[in-house]
Amino acid sequence: MRGNFAAIVLIVIGSFFLLSNLGLLNISLRELFHTWWPLILIAVGISLFFTPGRK
């Protein structure tokens, strides 16, 4: 699950950058990141919460 989560995050981030570079996305990535960066912390925390502990 953890590897899948990281792969999905990379695909989404790469897609945003590609669409922005192609001019198909008119959203400032800087403003988007500036506003939503705490969501990254929340997602990592949830991922760690649901990851089974190592023994």
Question: Can you lay out the helices and strands and say which pair or pack?
Answer:
Layout: H1 2-21, H2 29-50
Structural notes for this entry:
- This protein is mainly α and 55 residues long.
- It has one domain.
- It is elongated and about 45 Å long.
- The relative contact order is 0.13.
How would you summarize this macromolecular structure in one to three sentences?
The chain is mainly α and 55 residues long. It is built from two helices and no strands. Helices cover 76% and strands 0% of the residues.
Keyword list:
mainly alpha; 55 residues; 2 helices; 0% strand; 76% helix
Rg for CA atoms: 14 Å
Overall spatial form: elongated
Helical coverage, percent range: over 70%
Can you summarize the main beta sheet? none
The portion of residues forming beta strands comes to under 5%
Q: Count the strands? A: 0
Alpha-beta classification: mainly alpha
Low-confidence stretches: none
